[in-house]
Specification:
Layout: E1 8-10, E2 16-18, H1 20-40, E3 46-52, H2 56-71, E4 75-81, H3 87-99, E5 105-108, H4 118-124, H5 136-143, H6 154-169, E6 178-182, H7 189-198, E7 202-206, H8 213-217, E8 222-225, E9 243-246, E10 250-253, E11 259-262, H9 267-270, E12 276-277, H10 288-303
Helix pairs in contact: 1-10, 2-10, 6-7, 6-10
Length: 305
């Protein structure tokens, strides 16, 4: 193991557990150092978060983003709009944030209340301030291989970081590896495949309708599961020694009337075959907010040359 293996811990089975919390902490400290370097030049990274409506889960998530931004010394603002906000009023706010030189990142919390067009609102955001990485311009830059010019969606960005660090810790290379991405969403599956291609992996994109999905997965050195079906990927689908990144977060009812969180991979089964695997919770999800902050710092850096 190399010095990058501090985020890997034993499981009691064959696989090492990829600890997203430890990996996320290192991203926070890297981002803090970059933010301090900008502050020393008189540039204060600015993040604006827009929340429409009163969805409780979205409220919790937005507050966590605002708290982390403040803890890193950002100029942090939060706009809470009523659920009855019109499309025109939402666009007007986004236009003001686009024009504000103190704001380098604009994040529109999704989902929006019924009646609002999320795609139109996302396209209204200046792509240079699109720290969620979901504007069509950023998607296009990533798809054409211009990774250094794009702002990358946080979940695939974090997943790629874990893949690179885990590969290095295991003495492997992403380049030339057989990788499979299960899931084809615009937010996760497609950008994940583009990042792996940019790292010179050989990439297969699969989904719930792929013929002989189990057989396809068994060929992969790297498995990224982002299909949204609890424990769909069984342990015997996993190639011996594969790196497994489980992006799924599914609420599964328990006999006592409560819920448990599970991923898209049958975790206990995969532990006996994989070289390393992310748990759910405690894996990829830990990376999302820190990488949003990293994107904000990068947007501030680009805006100021």
């Amino acid at each position: 193991m190399s010095e990058t293996s501090d985020f890997l811990r034993p499981s009691g089975a064959k696989a090492l557990i990829i600890d997203g919390k430890i990996a996320a902490a290192s991203i926070v400290e890297e981002t803090r150092a970059k933010a301090q370097a900008l502050l020393a030049r008189g540039v204060k990274p600015g993040l604006a978060v827009v929340l429409v409506g009163d969805d409780p889960a979205s409220g919790v998530y937005v507050r966590s983003k605002s708290r982390m931004a403040a803890s890193l010394g950002f100029h942090s603002v939060q706009h809470d709009l009523p659920g009855a906000t019109s499309q025109a009023d939402l666009h007007a706010l986004l236009d003001r944030l686009n024009a504000d030189p103190a704001i380098h990142g604009v994040l529109l919390q999704l989902p929006l209340p019924r009646g609002l067009d999320a795609a139109a609102a996302i396209e209204r955001i200046d792509p240079r301030k699109d720290v969620d990485g979901i504007h069509p311009v950023n998607a296009g830059l990533l798809a054409t291989g211009a990774v250094d010019r794009a702002l990358i969606p946080c979940t695939p960005f974090g997943s790629m970081g874990l893949i690179e660090r885990t590969s290095a810790a295991l003495g492997r290379k992403v380049e030339g590896a057989d990788a499979i991405v299960i899931g084809r969403s615009n937010l996760m599956g497609k950008p994940m495949a583009q990042l792996l291609l940019a790292a010179n992996a050989t990439v297969t994109m699969a989904h719930s309708r792929t013929r002989d999905l189990a057989g396809v997965v068994r060929r992969a050195d790297i498995v990224v599961a982002a299909v949204g079906q609890p424990e769909m990927v069984r342990g015997d689908w996993i190639r011996e020694g594969a790196i497994v990144i489980d992006v799924g977060i599914n609420r599964v009812p328990t006999p006592d009337g409560k819920y448990r969180l599970t991923g898209d991979v049958a975790y206990e089964e995969a532990l006996t075959r994989a070289a390393a695997i992310t748990p759910v919770p405690g894996g990829v999800g830990q990376m999302t907010v820190p990488l949003l902050m990293a994107n904000t710092v990068e947007a501030a850096r680009r805006a100021n040359g």
